[in-house]
Every structure is written in C-alpha cells, then in structure tokens.
Write a structure and sequence with these properties.
Helix 1 crosses helix 2 (24-35), helix 4 (130-144) packs parallel to helix 5 (166-177) and helix 6 packs parallel to helix 9 (236-250). The chain is built from 12 helices and 14 strands. With 343 residues, the chain is of the alpha/beta class. It folds into 2 domains: 2-60, DNA polymerase, domain 1, CATH 1.10.150; 65-342, Aldolase class I (TIM Barrel, Alpha-Beta Barrel). The strands form 3 sheets. A 10-stranded mixed beta sheet has the order 3-4-5-6-9-10-11-12-13-14, with helices on one face. The protein has helices at 9-18, 24-35, 49-58, 130-144, 166-177, 197-206, 221-227, 230-233, 236-250, 268-278, 304-313, 334-339, and strands at residues 2-3, 59-60, 65-71, 77-82, 88-96, 99-103, 107-108, 126-127, 153-156, 189-193, 211-215, 254-260, 283-289, 318-320. The structure holds S-adenosyl-L-homocysteine (SAH). The site of S-adenosyl-L-homocysteine has 19 residues, from strand 10 and strand 12.
Amino acid sequence: MINLFGLTLEKLEELVVLDNQNKFRAKQLYKWIYEKEVTSFSLMSDISKKYIEVLNEKYCLDKLEIASKQVSKDGTIKVLARLKDGSTVETVLMRYNYGLAACISSQVGCNMSCAFCASGLLKKKRNLETCEMVGQVLLLNDLLKDEGKRVTHVVVMGTGEPFDNFDNVVDFIKIINSQYGLAIGARHITVSTCGIVPKIREYGKLNLQVNLAISLHASNDELRNKLMPINKAYPLHKLIEAIKDYNVASSRRVTFEYILLKDVNDRKEDAIALAKLIKPVFAYVNLIPYNEVDENGFHRSKRAKEFMDQLMKLGVNATIRKEFGSDIDAACGQLRAKSEKVL
Ligand code: SAH
C-alpha cells in the first residue's frame, strides 16, 4: 500500500496515469486530502466508484498516532508521535506572533553525535519516510482544528539530520509547499543542517526558495570538531565555501544558528572570530539559548545580549531566538529520550 501523504503531486500524477486516469485526477486527490481533509476515498464524490475501488486497493491515507502530548503554559504543544513500526518521533508546535510553526523531525534518532544535543543520545534507527514528515504537520493541524487554525510555518529542526535523508526531505518540502497541498509558502519553510557540504550544494541547485539554516556553534575547527564531529569531514573553510556558492546559486541568504554555551563559545573574542569567519557570506546569526541536557557538562550562557551587541557592532545581523515551552521537556530530543529512559 502506498501512503498518499508521501507523494509529491508530480509522483502522484505519474501513478494515476498508470492507473489509466487523467493526470488531473492527482490534483483532485490532493484537494480532497489536503484542502477538504477527507479521511476516506469513498467520500470523494467527484471520483468514479470504480476508481475508488482501485484507490482502496492500492493506496492508504494513514496518519500518525499520538503516543504522548504536553501543552505548555505559552500554548506550545509537544507531541511524541508513534509511527507504524512502533518508533516514536518528536514534533513541536510553537506560537509566534507571525504564525504557527511546526518543528519537524526528519529521522528516528540521529547519528551526528553533537556533544550538546539530546537527540543524538539515541542513535539513528532509520530515516523518516516522506509521509511520516507530512504526517507530523497533519497531526498538528488536527490538534489546531478546534481553534480553526493550521500550521503556517515549518522548520525541519527536530530530531535528525535532514540532509542525511535528503530525497525524502525534498519531497516533503514539495508537498507542503504545493498550492494544491498544504500551501505553506517557501519563505515559511526552513531546513536546518549541521553542515553536510555536498548536500548544501545540491540543495542550492534545486532552487526551492526555502530557507536554509546552518548549525555553526563554533568559529574555529578545534572547537567545532569537539562540539560537532561532522566538522572533521567538512571543516569550516569547506563549509564557508559551500555557503558562498549557495548564496550565488539560490540568491538567498542563510541563517547561522549559534548556541551560546557558557565559557565555551560565548566570550567577546568568540564573537569577534565569528564575525570574521562569516564576513564573506550573505547571512545572519540566530543566537540560541541553550536548553540544558542533564549532565553533559554544558551550561546556558548569560552573555547573549552582550554577544549579540558585539556582533552588531562588527556589522553582523543577529537575533536571539525566542524560547517556547520552557515548562515542558523542551530540549531537543528530550521528550523521546525520556520516554525511552535514556535521560
Ligand atoms: N541536524 C540538524 C537539525 C536538527 S538540530 C542541525 O544540526 O541543524 C536543530 C537545532 O537545534 C540545531 O541548531 C542544533 O544544534 C540545536 N540544538 C540541539 N540541541 C540543543 C539544545 N539542547 N539546546 C538548544 N539548541 C539545541
């Protein structure tokens, strides 16, 4: 059975044609499942009984189950979603003043082994299928139904490394961005990578017009090797070169994510080194307050404002990330790690 929620419009068009249907049928199906949100093929009144039988045989509209749910005082919703094989992934809904953002996981676990991160405590079990990423958005949309709202922004910043699951993530973007699908604007979608250089280049060439965020966290190789082992494969000079080329290929700027870790990367000289490193690229810096993960030795910096001011003084655009859900298991990967008793 093929889950319809995992198919881009182009792929669905190919499949309906193979079923001897007009290509247009694919758009009709998209409309039913994403706009009218029907949960069964038999409710699709403009599709022949005969083809509905075929659809029932070949395709399904399976969604994700909720394994657990936490709602914060600020309205943030953190869901642990259960997949078909029993694995679980975290999905978070954050309420910004400009819209409702879903933070989507791209893998079950993660192999990138960033020293500060809770997600990597559970190694990668598998890549998420496209329908399982779309399913996370649909699950949040279902939870928002009572409010008459829908997810307006998507960040692929949950558990996993999206560029280690490249093809499925690209299909996911195409589906949620499609005007016949969830119609989430490209500028409202952000993919975050730890810095897999060849994939940054490939992504740039696709010209999706979707935002790209790079997790940087250090401005010299010695520290970045310790914090993010991926740096040993793709050191900073290669990363910066790839981002320069990305700027040109996509005509887009990137966001650098920089977690401020107390006495590790948050001093004045770190801000100066960071400004120097990123000068050649078109980018801005999003400073991230650290969510402490029990006993890994890293602590939240109290110098965020100073660090930001220093960057601005050096001509670098910087913001401090707004925090959500601080009263629930907020650190990345913490909910799942707790449920599997790693934390
Ligand atoms: N693998 C991708 C996306 C997932 S991590 C990446 O590395 O970008 C999403 C962001 O959350 C990254 O910037 C990551 O470094 C950051 N992050 C991980 N653990 C964190 C924590 N405990 N507190 C704050 N940010 C964290």
